[in-house]
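User: Can you model how KG4 sits in this protein?
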Amino acid sequence: MTDMRILGIETSCDETAAAVVMNGTRVLSSVVSTQIDLHARFGGVVPEVASRAHVEMLTPVISQAMLEAGMVDGGKVDAVAATVGPGLIGSLLVGVSAAKALALVWDVPFVAVNHLEAHLYAAFLEEPDLELPLVVLLVSGGHTMLVCMEGHGRYRLLGQTVDDAAGEAFDKVARFLDLGYPGGPAIDRLAMEGDPRAVDFPRPMKNDGYNFSFSGLKTSVVNYVRKNPDVAAADVAASFQDAVCDVLITKARRAAKEVGAKGLCLGGGVAANSQLREQLLDACVADGLQAFLPARAMCTDNAAMIAAAGWYRLASDGPSPLDTGANPSLSLSVLGS
Ligand code: KG4
Ligand code: ZN
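Assistant: Here's the modeled complex, given as structure tokens:
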């Protein structure tokens, strides 16, 4: 097969990203412009602010990605892949429109990519020969899912959150503790100085199926701190993080055992969490499973994972029609069944 270079574009939330990846695995460039500073004073992503920032940043980010990949004129790009959903509609439209325009101008295929599927593919960037079936714990600001990946493009959703996503719980608890935005990295850092056994927070639905619930845990943290105003924030952060990791790891292990998975894989922004990564590795060693932890930069939103997922999609389904629209509530099964 001849080498194929795909330009990936990601604008579903608050990162404007572009990357060039060869054959779904070799990252030639990956540029991410984060809007964190723009949204920090609001304590969360403001959709209209995000769309405007994508409009402003996308062209320079794509140029930088092309330059770093040694392609200045676009002549060597073989396809353009973009996130079509799920995400913020205004933000998605910026990336999808740009991708279609470039595909038309360069006369190359356009590939519609599901953001969730792309998170699953982040691991394949580093380990193209991952053995299947694989259980992927996909934990981001918008989603918390346990997925069994049976083949490329073949997924079974084992469970998902019934209320808040894990990342959302991190962000809300961090906001309550005045740790700033985004909350996940702030709690991760502070938890290192705290005692995870200081407060015995509940482990919602730990032994109950594969669905998750984090909204009650967040309320428990708020109630506990209000009743115990002198408690050290580091102890609260460490105990909260311990409860989240305990639930996530327990269910992922159980799922891997039940489906006879060869390995366990982490994906999504929360997969950058130090304790979660450490405990997943320990669990895999104990259970005789392969552990796949994408590099932290590949766990949070980026365009290399979009280009990688686009390469597999193009190989299986061919180009996407140019009238494919952005879909803010796209589910994993729409593209992956
Ligand atoms: O995948 P992502 O970049 O964007 C979405 O698609 O949602 O995930 C962002 C989420 C945020 O909630 C953020 O707080 C969380 O990932 N996150 C973390 C860490 N780094 C990012 N959560 C816990 N620990 C971290 N180190
Ligand atoms: Zn994401």
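A couple of observations from the model: The beta strands are 5-10, 15-22, 26-34, 79-85, 110-114, 134-139, 144-151, 154-160, 263-267, 290-292. Residues 5-120+298-336 form a domain with the Nucleotidyltransferase; domain 5 fold (CATH 3.30.420.40).
User: Helpful, thanks.
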